[in-house]
Amino acid sequence: MFAGWKELLDDTEPMDTSDSSWWWFYQAECGIWHRIEDDPVNPISSSELEMLYLRNPNRIIIFSTAGSNFRIDFHGYMKTNVKTGQVQKIKRSLFTERAARCKCADLAPSVPTYWEHMDPNLPFKAFNLNWQTSEYNKVENYVKEFGLLKKPLRCIYRIQNIDLWELYCRKKKQLMRIKGTSDINEEWLFHGTGKNNVHNICLYNFNCRISKKLRKHGHILGKGTYFAKHAAYADKYSTAQNQYNTTQIMFLARVIVGNYTEGRPDLVKPDALAYISHNRGSSTEAKLVHNYKL
């Protein structure tokens, strides 16, 4: 049974049911429909979803798993990550559709379904989001509500780089295999920078090997790329183009978050023995996890 679920609408009388078994599916980023049970992180089963759905097909429920909160809207057939705003379509069917399903792990990483068509010969492309779209509104709300940024947003671009996306997906699977887990923590984090760095970041990703001489803000916690939990903090490192154009640039990146250790200026790569055990529950870890800005 799943933990911490609650209903956001009042109960109604249960719908009339039959002896047929209904299955619930979610649409993965690869575009393939998978049974709810096929997601190893999902603590809720088709039978449990069906029970709640039959009681009220207009219900909205919220449940917690793997450190995230999810909202399921039966009426809209949507599953939403409350923290990141990521939306997955869901559906119910009388057929298990096992013959039609595939395992994403056996496929080359597919791009997200909301990406737009682009010339495959281009290394990357930046799509200016329409301010009236739900994607724009979700990013804007995340920047303001979770990122605590008070400044107005002039525009939002979605950066599509197929090569970097595939590398990210494969690295994610590799880390899950190394850690022996079916899930790994991902967060949306902010990175402030200047206009001169935008092209290289979009093309090659964030460069952790830039020397201290080239990195304007040094290495207070170690040598690498810095991301901020809040956009208001990353804003300090986002430089205006010139005195006449005060537009600043900031990246909102999907980042795989691993173990924690205390940083120092000369740190190049964290020592495996220095990692703080997540099972220890130490006061040092609590301070790092709950009070971090970078």
Can you walk me through this structure?
This protein has 294 residues and is an alpha+beta fold. The model is unreliable at 9-18 and 275-290 (pLDDT under 50). The protein has a seven-stranded antiparallel β-sheet. A two-stranded antiparallel ribbon has the order 8-9. A two-stranded antiparallel sheet has the order 10-11. The chain is built from six helices and eleven strands. The protein is 22% helix and 19% strand. Residues 111-294 form the PARP catalytic domain. Belongs to the ARTD/PARP family. GO terms for molecular function: NAD+ poly-ADP-ribosyltransferase activity; NAD+-protein mono-ADP-ribosyltransferase activity.
Q: Termini, distance in Å? A: 36 Å
The largest sheet is: 7 strands, antiparallel
Counting copies of identical and different chains, the oligomeric state is single chain
Rough shape?
globular
Order of helices and strands: EEEHEEEEEHEHEHHEH
Helix content: 10-25%
Neighbour order of strands in the largest sheet: 1-4-5-6-7-2-3
Mean pLDDT: 77
Number of strands: 11
CATH topology term of the largest domain: Phosphoenolpyruvate Carboxykinase, domain 3
How much strand content do the residues show? 15-25%
Which stretches are poorly predicted, pLDDT < 50 over at least 5 residues?
Answer: 9-18, 275-290
Structural class category: alpha+beta
* The level-1 CATH class of the largest domain: Alpha Beta
Note the total helix count.
Answer: 6
The overall number of domains is 2
Return the CATH architecture of the largest domain: Alpha-Beta Complex
Enzyme class: transferase
GO molecular function: NAD+ poly-ADP-ribosyltransferase activity; NAD+-protein mono-ADP-ribosyltransferase activity
Subcellular location: Nucleus
EC number: 2.4.2.-
